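Field: sequence (string)
Field: structure_tokens (string)

Example rows 1 and 2, in order.
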Amino acid sequence: MSEPTHEPTHDMLELHEDVGALGFEVAGPPWILGHRGAPREAPENTLAGLRRALELGLDGFEYDLRACATGEAVLMHDATLDRTTDASGPLARRTVPELFGIDAGAWFGRRFRGEPVPLLDEALDIVADTPGRAPLHMIELKEPGLVASVAGKLRALELERSARVASFLREIVLEARDAGLPSMLLAVNAEEDDRRFVRDERVDAYATGPGGWRAAAGAADWSFCERWSWSVDDPGDLLEACRVPLFGFNTNEPRRALATRALTRLAPGDRGPYPVVAPELVVVPEGLRAEERARGEWYGSWSRAARVRNPLPFAVVSACSVFLRGGAFEFEGLPQRFPLEPGEERDVPLRVVGGSRSPGPDPLFAAQLFWRAGPGRCAGRLLLDAPLTRVRLLRSDAVAQRLSLLAERPGDPPASMIVQQSRRDLLVSIESPGDLEDAHVLAHLAGHTARGGRGLRLRLPEDFEERAAGVAFSCGIEGRRGGKPAFRRWAGGVPEGIEHGKPGRLVPRRA
């Protein structure tokens, strides 16, 4: 069985290129930016990734900045070079000449070998192919001390209005505002304290995580600033962002985001859910037969039904299929092709067998809608997709439970963690780290990721016991193997990153 790969399949790319074939150009708002470029198709925070975001038709890109040893602004999310380059250690200890010899692309794919670690100047030099259309830059400052340099470079190129300088740190946001730059405060969820800060300090924009605006819907006034979101990928979240619409957002799913924006223009009166619903695939490693387990523990056999709805005010033909991003799968029941009247929906039964050793990108169920020319419209097509998400489930309990971690390589020794609910808290600790040295806990709960020593105490949402579907949850162990960083996991979602799959779910014991 092949392991997950970052390289999209040729068939997937070929079909997805049809997303924009609508006979008209769909512009913002919302303005859609690539999160760290186009991280499913090119290494994150690289020039190749930023260029690919524009090639896909996005309005711009988001990238992260940190300072190297000589003070220059460098595109890098992490404080260290380990994850996204062939080097190791803190970025802050490397000079610009030292960075020139570092490869920021080979980890992602062979064709990106030799991709450099870019400086801010190089990112600002990228221009869109469309004359008169400068790409939008959402520039997240990960640390203090960069605002003056960023301001000088943006002014020199007259790009101030094409940029939003963003940070989770209020002092950086205020410094950007005082430097005359369009400033943006980042947050996970829209909070009243943030609203007052943004209003009173005259900050230009405020951005939440995916779904982070829901708590503010219909309540407090946010009209004094631009409303944004970051890392919006889920089909339902994308539809919500485009319907509001937000002023802009960034995404790891550019094709899905562009198609969703087009959908809201084609069907402005539709208020139904996202038109393509893919079933969830629950993974139960403990239930695998020996021959299945040998192929990988992130594996299974499922008979489920997807659903396709026609949200358009005219008849369409739906062509359904599945596309792989990694792993090895077999499908029965696809492809299918059938007509749909306006508002009509149809179940699509399918059987899925397969998986991978490690949590990673899940298969996509896709429906391409075709329609003929009619009164006031030309013929067109629109591809909508949703992931067949593989998840692991855990029922919360006041009694301590042992969680066996996945064997993600042949011969991985057993590793385990202990999880226990204590009133409003979830206690997560290491029982056995397997072959990892310097082990510490890594956990994700309800959208937040935390790291600790041998254990963590995590606060459950106040309404956890009322959430029958549960909350996102995963845990694992970070450490070192043979002197190199390594980890073991119970499910996807840890460490954070689109290459690590989706978190599992923690379900209330009374649900």
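Row 2 begins here:
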Amino acid sequence: MTIFSKLNGIASRIAIAIVLAIILVLALGIIISAGNGYYSGGRVHVRFSSSGFGVINPDRNQMMQAGRIALMIRVVASSPRPERQRLIAVLSDPEMQAALDAPPFSPAADGVRDDNLDWLRQLIEMQLEGAAPPMVVSARRLPMAADKPADLHPSEAALPESLVEVALPDGQRMSIRLPTRPARFGLLALLSVVLFAAVIVALWTARRLAGPIREFAHAAERLGVDLTAPPLAVRGPHELRTAIAAVNRMQDRLRRFLEDRTQMLAAISHDLRAPLARLRLRAELVADGEQQGKMFDDLEAMNAMIDSTLAFARDEARQEPRRLVDLAVLVGDVCEDVADAGGGVCYLGPRGIDVSCRPTLIRRAVANLIDNALKYAGAARVKIVRENDRVAIVVDDDGPGIPLAEHEKVFAPFYRLEAARDPGKSGVGLGLSVARTVAREHGGDITLINRDGGGLSVLIELPAQ
């Protein structure tokens, strides 16, 4: 087995699909996290290390945000008053706008208390511990102002700002505004996109793997129904290619075996005609009229068997392509033809029952069953019954029926059951055998049922469309 064959196996394909899915999820995580920071106006840092990677936005991380604010407060508090305004201008940025001696807000003007801001205040106070005298920090949401810049997006203009206030050790008050930016991609969106990507990769991989397997299953099912179907295309993983090639070889061998058997049967039947002709000539010379008549009867029976065998062996209807037909119309036409010829047959059944079949073979099988019913019961009733994915052609007669022990034997070629039926009306013995062969070639079968009130029901079951 080559390296390519190993990589083309089912296990290798599944492993490659999993690896690709992981890489895709990680790449999407980096892109979306970076995009989140970009659209949120923050500074995004992608950090790689031996243990992995991470995407950091310091303006969205409360711990880092509290550290920046505390550091800003310490720097301003430790500077002389004349230098503080210059430091404020240097340290301020769009995400943290610091100011000195801003007018305080009264409690009535305060915004709604926010748990996140309260947690941010506690983090700042923890990092300012040890300052003497202690600095008191407060944080609140500001009411929405009407003087926001006109170039803001409507979704941003409708959001309130946050305010952090602190009293410096010398009594001066410092305030820091924290504008609220909308997060264009939240955690739920990130998880949704990652899940969507994983599902797409999984479905694509499953379809790529299941497609050839599904076709192989259909081909294996078709093998028992139609040996003349074209071979299955060899594609898919290495293991599946090997199985498909084996099935194609088996189908070819079975087809050649049946062709050889049919040719041999036709040759034997043809070669028997010469000795039968000689026997007939010799029978003409027999002086005993009674014995001569019996010999002629036997010769006629043998000729009938040979004719039936040749017709069966040379049957070209098996090369007929399958097509979709209305089974009710086909069976109804057979019944009408028999009735026009004087046979007592009637059809009862619905229309619009489609099956994929070789119409000539189905017609012959139904005609054989109707012919048997007319021979041994004088009349026949035909109907079609559909149950789920199966269709049954039912031929009923009121004859003597067939003993249960003989139900399988009557399907053998040239087997005749004169003890149960009328010996004067016996045929060659190929009718039921041909009908079963046709049914099984179409993926169905034939069943014999002795009815309680007398008579026989013969069912040809076929797969429905």
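free_text_note (row 2): The longest strand covers residues 380-387.
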